[in-house]
Amino acid sequence: MAMASFARRKAYLLSRNLSNTSSEAVRYSFSITSFSRGFASSGSDDNDVVVIGGGPGGYVAAIKAAQLGLKTTCIEKRGALGGTCLNVGCIPSKALLHSSHMYHEALHSFKSHGVKFDNVQIDLPAMMSQKDKAVSNLTKGIEGLFKKNKVTYVKGYGKFVSPNEVSVDTIDGGNTVVKGKNIIIATGSDVKSLPGVTIDEKKIVSSTGALALSEIPKKLVVVGAGYIGLEMGSVWGRLGSEITVVEFGPDIVPSMDSEIRKQFQRSLEKQGMKFVLKTKVVGVDTSGDGVKLTLEPAAGGEQTTLEADVVLVSAGRNPFTSGLDLDKIGVETDKMGRILVNERFVTNVPSVHAIGDVIPGPMLAHKAEEDGVACVEFIAGKVGHVDYDKVPGVVYTHPEVASVGKTEEQVKALGVEYRVGKFPFLANSRAKAIDDAEGLVKILAEKETDKILGVHIMAPNAGELIHEAAIALQYDASSEDIARVCHAHPTMSEALKEAAMATYDKAIHI
């Protein structure tokens, strides 16, 4: 089986080398013969590429374009590079997740490891300062990368004047027009609001406000049981808040494998998080000291009230294209406001491209980065590729949950015969040694070929472990391929090896 897997992978790699593409592209399929070097015919020769938006997709696209020899300008309205992710999203939230976890460990776990304190206290201003320092250093680092790669950086709000011109209202009060042969829209996404709920970033906050609370709320209600809501709920729950999560749907994180989801929810409940599912918010009263929410079953029924000091609205995100004047140049969008693009990330206006959260696909920073690289490779006459079926997703709670590929429900829906291999971290020596053994690895593989279809991990460091699985899926590996790779002992990664063994044969340590 292992030799067959190797031969299959070799044939797959050869086909990729010959075609420079993949038949598994989610949105489009394409051939190298359809591409030719060249830029949009109209406009100025001032820039080869102009990127609107300096978030993960935009700044990566700008740097890659410059590295490919294209004269590049990046426009960013915030005045600080990194977009939502770096400034008010991924990075500051992970800083607070880590800091709050350290506090929680000091309170609840250190004694069992022989580390004792007389008094453990929270210094919230210091915690916020550490978060802000991390953000500042990283944004300055991107500016340094722009200088290193000779990317021109314009600070201001850009909008289209023509398919090759962007008018920028600069943050210093001026205005300039930036011209380019190719313009990439990388403006990301914004918080989705709820009808009748006004976010003031004080009592009713978005994720941005939840990252900057000046005091720990006694009661925090999270509206929306997705990645962001559960992560921010975890932060404030560890610091002492009573957390209640209100979710319209029947499940938390609906995109997650159901078996993993059930274990994940039980874990969060053990940590004190409460869930009110199949419920919608129909009214908000902020006239008192706190917030009073009126709730109603999603299917209709008797109303109830829920009081909180702070309410976090985390009901998803919308593409952010406001103020770009897309209608002026005729760029088409779908009913959700997402910009429509072809396999080369080109809109219906030939000189205008779009990447990241403003187009269909997962709203994830790392997906936007891949979009950015592929987009500018196409512009430079090369071939780019992003397979949206193989983009890993991570919930950065504790334990973390990470996945790549298909869930068991998706595999069943496809009608594919499959096998499942699982391995619990309770049987992993490293997890037991560090006394952090909650979770498991679950692998789904096609029964006939043993090709891996999906991998799901719930573990303290699942977000790091998932990338071995992502590589395996990218190269059509079998579960036996992973199982026959020597994994260092003792490591958490051995759980993935054991789950792979359980998929095609039998695990050793259970």
UniProtKB/TrEMBL annotation:
EC number, as in UniProt: 1.8.1.4
Catalytic-site annotation from UniProt: H489
UniProt protein name: Dihydrolipoyl dehydrogenase
Catalytic reaction(s) noted: N(6)-[(R)-dihydrolipoyl]-L-lysyl-[protein] + NAD(+) = N(6)-[(R)-lipoyl]-L-lysyl-[protein] + NADH + H(+)
GO cellular component, one term: oxoglutarate dehydrogenase complex
Boundaries of every FAD/NAD(P)-binding domain copy: 48-372
Positions with a binding annotation for FAD: K94, G158, T187, G188, S189, D357, M363, L364, A365, H366
Disulfide bonds: C85-C90
Keywords, sorted A to Z: Disulfide bond, FAD, Flavoprotein, Mitochondrion, NAD, Nucleotide-binding, Oxidoreductase, Redox-active center
Gene Ontology MF terms: dihydrolipoyl dehydrogenase (NADH) activity; flavin adenine dinucleotide binding
Cellular compartments annotated: Mitochondrion
Similarity comment: Belongs to the class-I pyridine nucleotide-disulfide oxidoreductase family.
Domain Pyridine nucleotide-disulphide oxidoreductase dimerisation: 391-500
Family matches, as NCBIfam families: lipoamide_DH
Keyword flag Zinc-finger: no
